[in-house]
Amino acid sequence: MENTITGHTRLIGLFAEPIRHSVSPMIQNTALQALDIDAVYLAFELGEDRLISAIESIRTLEMLGANLSMPHKMAAVPLMDELSEAAKLVGAINTIVNDNGRLIGYTTDGTGFMRSLKDQEIDIIGKKMTIIGAGGAATAIIVQAALDGVKEIAVYNRKDEFFEKVKEKLRYIEAHTSCIIHLHDLANSDELAADVSDSSLLVNATGVGMKPNLAASPIEDFSILRADLPVYDVIYTPRETTLLKEAKARGTKAVNGLGMLLYQGAAAFELWTGKEMPIEKVKPIIENS
Question: Where does shikimate bind (predicted)?
Answer without folding.
Answer: 22-24, 69, 94, 109, 236, 264
